[in-house]
Amino acid sequence: MPMNRRCLLFSCLAVLMTTPLGAMAAAQAGGQHAAEVDPRIGTGGDGHLFPGATVPFGMIQLSPDTAMPDFKHAYKWAAGYQYNDPTIMGFSHTHFSGSGHSDLGDVLVMPIAGDVKLDPGDEKVPGSGYRSRFDHATEVEQPGYYAVTLADYGVRAELTASQRVGWHRYTFPVGKPAHLLLDLRPSIYDYQGKVLWSNLQVQADGTITGCRTTRGWAPGRELCFAMRFNQPMTSRELYNRETDLVYKGFKGPGNQQEDANAQNGRALVGVFDFGELKQPLLVKVAISPVSEANAIANLDQDGQGWNFDAHRTDATAAWNKALAPIDADGTPVQRTQFYTALYHSMIAPNLAMDVNGEFRGPDHQVHKASGFDFYSSWSMWDVYRAQQPLLILLHPDRTADFVRSLIASQQASPFGMLPVWAYQGLETWCMTGYHAVAIIADAYIKGVRGFDADKAMKAMVSTATYGNYGDLADYMKLGYVPIDKEVEGGSKTQEYAYDDWAIAQMAKAMGKNDIYATFEKRSTNWRNVWDPKTGFMRAKLSNGQFREPFDPASAGYGDDYTEANAWQYSWYVPQDVAGLITAFGGDKAFTDKLDQMFDAKVDPAIFKDVEDITGLIGWYAHGNEPSHHIAYLYDYAGEPWKTQQRLKQVMDNEYGPGPAGLIGNDDLGQMSAWYIFTALGFYPVTPASTEYAIGRPFLPRAAIHLSNGHTFTITASPMDDAHPYVGAVTLNGKPLDRVYLRHADILAGGELHFTMQAEPNKTWGTAISARPTAMSPYTK
Question: What residue stretches are annotated with the Glycosyl hydrolase family domain (predicted)?
């Protein structure tokens, strides 16, 4: 539900109390930006973020789980944690970062002091199971580190992470026997019933290993693990708890006899006993998407020694390095929000490859990467817009591995398709479009190399011509996706057309003129779903007629659009904004319609059955990605001051400090990346072009330290709420009359300075020649 995200006095004070001003000053002076991150932001409401320990783009996301409800009720627990929940049921090793869908939550462990219960129990009934109450006052959330006191056991739990290993330190109360419970039943997709098979065994050297196969979002996903302790076990019990487990009409055989060495089944629990401990119990866990042997190898290589504090220090250092490319000034609250957003933009995609190079592909087979790290966790529909462009700017070397990973996935795909929404190498087919092509093209156009461009182009064309995907067959034949053949045909036509344009841009840059001509022509297909009579994009039937009846406010599965309505998707032609302006009837008609959208009085209840449409400003819905570029479109129609005005509305109302600081799912870093670009003062409206639309900055100064050794600095003065508009802009001391930056401008280094003022400047950036480039000639 929409919430006001303004910085209220008490929430600002909370940020200041948890991040001492001295620490902030030290971080600013020494580039130690991890100290300014607050991982709690987005862990409440619909942010779907987790507060636990991970390293940049790491395989491990070790975090507390407060609930794992059944799939029908799992939406708010997509990351396993909701800030307002009263109990913790354990700590698992894999989590999505801000996704709109649930799964993972693998290898859940719970330290227990005293009597052991084998099931999590009811959070409303203390002592009914192994879960424990906790108090947020005992939590510590930092990049790469999480700690909490489990009140029911008096156990202090501390977590940190490296690339493939989760590190635990549990301090037990004196005089009570210490146990560690391992539960292989839970899945964030559904607590019970999604495990197809699992095994658990104690190796001769005391290493605990196991695997499980789940029927979750990616059916048949396999994950294995290896676990070791720094203390000898005094005893252990392995259970198969299938008593009440019913799956597709099959009821388990009931509690099987406990075993000390091995169990197989679909509801396995292990309890490892350590007696009364005089020192903390340390646990290290490695995972593998391939095998137990690989998990052991990962643990042997990445999990050496028992120095928890050293690994915590290494995790902090990894985050400081990842965050180092931007030094930003601002108030303490601004800096916390900025560096937290930057942190969240660098959690995914995730390493999905073992130390020997093996990974699981979309064909469920084992493949081997050579010369690059394989990454997965791709929410393509979201991250191509801003998160991946941000990483191209800040970490282009990492982007080269991302592109090689996409190509490797396509080569392993039974359908010759690039990933659509993939994790741990497997495909879910969630969402629409084939936006991996935009990520690859954006990287190539902006100069990223280190991957085989010819292989990439073949993968892109193969994806865009696979007729069975999303009714591409009819799209290629008719020039649109017919709604009587494929749901959401309107928005799918628009998205395919943009992706086609991205392919064309890379083909043109590579000199592949035949491919360029084919996909440049396809990129104009958006015109086939434009209805000049209503002034909206609409889905067509196979006979060429628009579907009736038509309501531009309607949204939901089976409608013309994906997670949106006509008010939101009718602006989606990022490759040809000039053509869209002409279709609307010129500049004034275009901006008048934009104003009408933002200023509309809309009851949020209209979207009560569409979970992702949140953060409403009129019909604009910042909580979902189709709206993310819209505020910048005034730039293209000669009214950049309105872009500046709308951006302030969004920044004031959709982002804030504290757990409820995100109005919608972060979607693997997209919401956060939008914030970063907008705070800096520009945004990639059209990935696969070299231009960024200029908005207005929200920080007095920010310096981007580029991988080529140059620094690009953005400054603004006066920077306060009394001066919300851009009066003038200079680039390296010379007046900048255009309302866009080129990628080359940034890479060259220098200074972009904004002079801010109280009233709109209605002459700056209004000329046609000043506007961002688009395909079609401008028509007034």
Answer: 294-757
CA atoms of 430 and 422, how far apart (whole Å): 8
Contact call for residues 107 and 124 (beta carbons, < 8 A): no
Residue 12's pLDDT is 34
Q: Where are the beta strands (DSSP E) in 607-736?
A: 616-617, 620-621, 682-683, 691-694, 701-705, 711-717, 725-731, 734-735
Contact 423, 378 (CB under 8 A): yes
| Predicted local confidence at residue 11, as pLDDT | 33
Residue 153 identity (one-letter amino acid): Y
Report the pLDDT value the prediction gives residue 249, as an integer from 0 to 100.
40
Please report the pLDDT score of residue 10 as a whole number.
28
The answer to whether domain 38-321 has CATH 1.10.287.180 is: no
Rounded CA-CA distance 141/129 in Å is 26
Each residue's pLDDT tens digit, 344-381: 999 999 999 999 999 999 999 999 999 999 999 999 99
Residues 42, 426, 555: CA angle, nearest 5 degrees: 55
Angle among Cα 506, 511, 516 to the nearest 5 degrees reads 55
Tokens of 118: 């084998």
Report how far residue 301's alpha carbon sits from residue 70's, in angstroms, rounded to the nearest whole number: 37
Rounded to whole angstroms, the Cα distance separating 443 from 687 reads 9
User: 37 and 55 in contact (C-beta within 8 Å)?
Assistant: no
Q: Tens of pLDDT along 618-664?
A: 999 999 999 999 999 999 999 999 999 999 999 999 999 999 999 99
- Tell me the β-bridge partners of 693: 683, 740
The DSSP annotation for 740-771 comes to EEEHHHHHT-EEEEEEEESS--SSTT-SGGGS
The predicted structure's pLDDT at residue 242 = 84
> ∠ CA 660-665-668 to the nearest 5 degrees?
120
Dmax over CA atoms of the chain, in Å, equals: 81
Q: What pLDDT sits at residue 255?
A: 53
Q: What is the pLDDT of residue 258?
A: 72
Q: Decide: residue 39, CB within 10 A, 0-12 exposed, 13-18 middle, 19+ buried.
A: buried
In sign, the C-alpha dihedral spanning 350, 164, 54, 33 is negative
Structure tokens at 252: 């388990």
**Distances 292 to 353, 366, 627 between C-alpha atoms, Å:** 14, 13, 44
State how far the alpha carbon of 250 is from the alpha carbons of 44, 196, 526, 559, 598, in Å: 37, 12, 49, 37, 53
Which pLDDT value is given to residue 778? 52
**Contact in structure between 503 and 515 (CB atoms under 8 Å):** yes
How much is the pLDDT for 558? 87
Rounded Cα distance, 227 and 26, in Å: 37
Q: Which residue has tokens 């972009």? A: 752
Number of neighbours of residue 592 by Cβ within 10 angstroms: 13
Could you tell me where in the chain the CATH 2.70.98.10 domains are found?
A: 38-321
Q: Which of 578, 581, 584, 674 is nearest to 621 (CA)?
A: 674
Burial 300-313 (b: 16+ CB within 10 A, else e): eebbeeeebeebbe
In this prediction, the residues of the chain whose per-residue pLDDT falls under 70 are 1-30, 71, 191-193, 243-257, 774-780
Q: Locate 445 and state its tokens.
A: 């156009």
Residues of the chain with CATH 1.20.1050.60: 365-467
Q: How far is CA 143 from the centre of its chain?
A: 16
pLDDT of residue 780: 39
pLDDT at 622: 97
H helix count then E strand count, the chain: 19, 40
Distance separating alpha carbons of residues 144 and 113, to the nearest angstrom:
26
